[in-house]
Design a protein that fits this description.
The structure holds two protein chains of two kinds. By secondary structure, chain A is of the alpha+beta class. Chain A has eleven helices and 15 strands. The longest helix of chain A is centred in the middle third of the chain and has 24 residues. Chain A is elongated, with a radius of gyration of 23 Å. Chain B is of the alpha+beta class. A six-stranded mixed β-sheet of chain B has the order 4-3-2-1-5-7, sandwiched between helices. Chain B has a five-stranded antiparallel β-sheet with strand order 15-14-16-19-20. Chain B has a three-stranded antiparallel β-sheet with strand order 8-11-12. The radius of gyration of chain B is 22 Å and the shape is globular. In chain B, 57% of the residues are buried. Classes of the chains: A alpha+beta, B alpha+beta.
Chain lengths: 400, 400
């Protein structure tokens, strides 16, 4: 709406006049943020197993595996030298600042992996090593390989660094949002009576792929909203698409996301499944209006210095029950804390203070017996004085 | 009739019984599982397929306790719980990736396991938050490594589990017939990916689990990418790379059906009229000889080492599989799991693997002629009482 021209039209291609995103600067800035965090926490080494953290530290495009996996050290950052060491058998997809001799091969032997790390990194000399996850087997091997080292929480350093985005990172997220919305638009075009929910997921993923995106942020929700409260949730919502044939007149929740250069862009919309001659009912429009009041109430809370509990309270003060998903989560290299509006309660939310440069995915869900539900989700960046909405896709006929 | 072929409830019940028996054998009273493949096995619940970090924050968690009739599932997606799981065994999500969540999780473990904790608890992995808090929160409880226990129960599959793998593979293969016909000059890798993802969801896949690979193989290793072990660089991440006439394409994909993975591997030629050269046909013939030699040895009682010997005895000189991978891997609720044969775990390890009925093996030999690329394909064989049953059924066109 008030986005600058380049921000609205980022594109994904390299151009002869240069790109819109300076990836090299972005990687350098991220590494500096991590090194500063290591300095503050007196960490000699960060030893990383989680994919998101590895992407943040290295900028490498490695093979995407869905769903996460068991722990194995896949990236090491050394405080003293600022060097990155990376699990990769080859230099394809690896930024040029990480030389071939800083790579170590895929291995199924934890012993061999640790032995190799001892050879190429200062692991054995380290006094304090930050880890972002751990398995019992690796813990024993690490203690033997670095006998003088204390193994401490390294995830806190990564979370603090990732929480505040640089301008380059926000530009990646804008691009990812544009792609996610393109893919949702394709689903909206494909929506018709009789289509399976899983077919809509297929449409989303195919359109996403057209933009050289090879990984979704999440496979997402493409589900007709229930009209009766048979499920265990109040308000009732199905979030996993099945081979259910969507009926004319149903309201369909479409919510998903993609990764561009590792960054998440996601959005949620609800669209009516219209056949020939069917019309939108006033009760369906009223559902959107209820969601809209919810969104306006939440958006007013998204400003620096405010905290997650205020967002939760604004949601609850509208009289709508909390949905079966976080009403807000940090977004960047995929999901990040904070998670707001969960079963962990308002005390946990109160500790999460909004700061300029944070990016959040914020959403809600309203439901009416006999009518269905409206799910909507937006992405916002916290600015110096409030927030900027990064999503741009309209809410369609229900909002008319 | 359907129930004779695949009975999901029976499958889940048998797995749970096996898990409890193994816990009993190892003398632990409870298991707390957070790794996706283990959780999928223990509870049989569907979650959302997502990028690693989101998958972490939204992970399903299982607590299994000796003497109880069913596992306890903690999930953000209760609709994905098995229908037979009692309502009081389905709980709101836990957040083991967050400090507040770990406290709540351990409280829940104590409440559910009660006095069974006197026999200790097996945990399969630690998030950073667990790693710092669990030793303190469970200072009075013996904590064991759950991984060996889960490896043991997951190694041999029931008939129902094998049927799930076969169906996953069939969906994957059916989608590939559509994709292979589009492997023509000028198509981009991401376009093949889009078509593939669309088709698998139309055909009933539950999820895609890995970035699909469509890698044009350079004829010689020194063309790059450079590897740290001097071996073939495969599998490389897909991009919007434009495929050219005559490219030798190594294809590798994996999807999920009811929690079980597929693994598709073939070599294609990019062309309007694909026709292998005499040398390429010879590569395929040598690959087939290796496949046949290995398959001949697949029967109960054979060791992993006997299979690597059979593969290496086939003429050709170099070891006919990739050093950073394996000749054979298992498949189940993870796309690559035990048994690993021919990996860098070493020959003694291979010797220690004794095949038994129900093991499912993915054979992935690769033939390489330096200067002329090579041939690679994958075959899935389930070990039976006296041999094996092949679960793959895709054409070797254009080589055959």
């Amino acid at each position: 709406m008030t986005q600058p021209y380049k921000a609205r039209n980022p594109g994904t291609m390299a151009h002869e006049f240069g790109g819109t995103i300076d990836f090299e600067r972005m990687r350098r800035d991220r590494r500096q943020r991590c090194l500063a965090g290591m300095e503050r926490n007196q960490l000699d080494l960060l030893l990383i197993g989680r994919d998101g953290n590895g992407r943040y530290l290295s900028g490498a495009r490695r093979l995407w595996m869905g769903g996460g996996h068991g722990f194995g050290p896949s990236c090491v950052l050394v405080r003293e030298s600022g060097e990155v060491f990376l699990l990769s058998t080859w230099d394809d997809g690896i930024p040029s600042e990480i030389p071939l001799d800083h790579l170590y091969a895929l291995s199924f032997s934890p012993m061999a992996t640790i032995e190799r790390l001892k050879q190429i990194t200062p692991l054995a000399k380290a006094r304090r090593i930050g880890v972002d996850s751990m398995s019992p087997l690796f813990e024993g091997l690490l203690r033997a390989a670095a006998p003088n080292a204390e193994l401490v929480d390294g995830e806190a350093v990564l979370r603090a660094a990732r929480r505040i985005k640089t301008a380059d990172e926000i530009q990646c997220i804008r691009t990812a949002c544009a792609i996610a919305e393109a893919a949702l638009s394709a689903c909206i075009d494909a929506l018709r009576p009789g289509i399976f929910e899983t077919e809509l997921l297929g449409v989303f993923e195919q359109r996403m792929s057209a933009f050289n995106v090879t990984a979704p942020a999440v496979e997402g929700t493409f589900c007709a909203t229930p009209r009766t409260a048979a499920g265990s949730h109040i308000p009732p919502l199905r979030q996993l698409p099945t081979q259910y044939a969507i009926n004319e007149g149903e309201l369909v929740a479409l919510s998903s996301g993609v990764l561009y250069a590792g960054y998440e862009g996601s959005a949620g919309r609800t669209w009516p499944c219209l056949g020939s001659g069917s019309e939108i009912k006033p009760a369906q429009r009223e559902l959107y209006q209820r969601w809209r009041r919810l969104w306006d109430a939440m958006r007013a809370q998204l400003r620096p210095g405010n905290h997650g509990a205020a967002l939760r309270k604004a949601y609850e003060d509208t009289g709508e029950p909390l949905p079966p998903f976080p009403i807000a989560n940090g977004a960047g290299i995929g999901w990040e804390p904070p998670l707001i509006g969960t079963a962990l309660g308002p005390q946990a939310d109160a500790r999460e203070v909004f700061e300029p440069g944070m990016v959040l995915s914020v959403g809600g869900y309203v439901w009416q017996p006999g009518v269905g539900g409206y799910l909507g989700r937006e992405m916002v960046a916290i600015t110096d004085h409030g927030c900027e909405t990064l999503t741009a896709l309209g809410h369609g006929p229900l909002a008319e | 009739m359907e129930n004779d072929v695949l009975n999901l409830q029976r499958m889940r019940q048998e797995r749970y019984v096996r898990l409890l028996a193994e816990m009993d054998r190892r003398g632990v009273g409870a298991a707390l599982l957070i790794i996706p493949g283990n959780v999928a096995y223990a509870a049989g619940a569907r979650g959302v397929m997502a990028d690693g970090d989101r998958a972490g924050y939204e992970r399903n968690v299982v607590i299994a306790v000796k003497g109880q009739s069913a596992p306890h599932l903690f999930t953000a997606y209760p609709e994905g719980a098995p229908p037979e799981l009692p309502a009081d065994h389905i709980h709101p999500p836990l957040y083991p990736d967050l400090a507040d969540g770990v406290g709540a999780m351990i409280n829940m473990l104590r409440e559910i396991a009660g006095s069974r904790l006197e026999d200790g608890v097996a945990i399969d992995e630690y998030t950073a938050a667990m790693y710092t808090a669990v030793p303190r929160l469970l200072s009075d409880v013996r904590v064991a490594d759950a991984s060996p226990m889960l490896h043991a129960v997951r190694l041999c599959k029931s008939a129902d589990e094998i049927e799930c793998i076969r169906r996953a593979q069939r969906i994957n293969e059916l989608a590939m017939y559509d994709v292979q016909s589009q492997a023509r000059p000028g198509v981009r890798q991401n376009e093949l990916m889009g078509l593939f993802l669309r088709r698998i969801f139309e055909l009933g896949a539950t999820a895609n689990v890995v970035d699909p690979i469509w890698q044009p193989m350079a004829p010689a290793l020194n063309w790059g990418p450079h590897t740290v072990n001097g071996d073939i660089a495969f599998p490389l991440t897909s991009t919007d790379r434009i495929l050219r006439d005559g490219d030798v394409l190594w294809v590798d994909t994996g999807i999920v059906y009811q929690g079980y993975a597929s693994d598709f591997g073939r070599t294609w030629l990019v062309s309007h009229r694909p026709k292998p050269t005499a040398r390429q046909r010879d590569q395929y013939k040598r690959w087939r000889d290796i496949r046949d030699a290995v398959l001949e040895g697949v029967k109960p009682g054979a060791t992993g080492r006997s299979l690597t010997r059979a593969a290496a005895a086939a003429p050709g000189g170099r070891k006919p599989w990739m050093q950073h991978l394996y000749l054979i891997h298992g498949i189940g609720t993870d796309s690559a799991e035990m048994p690993l044969i021919g990996s860098n775990l070493g020959e003694e390890f291979d010797e220690s693997i004794v095949l038994g009925p129900g093991m499912v093996l993915v054979l992935e030999p690769a033939v390489w002629d330096e200067g002329h690329a090579g041939y690679r394909a994958e075959v899935i064989a389930a070990v039976t009482g006296n041999g094996y049953r092949e679960l793959t059924d895709y054409s070797y066109f254009p080589y055959e």
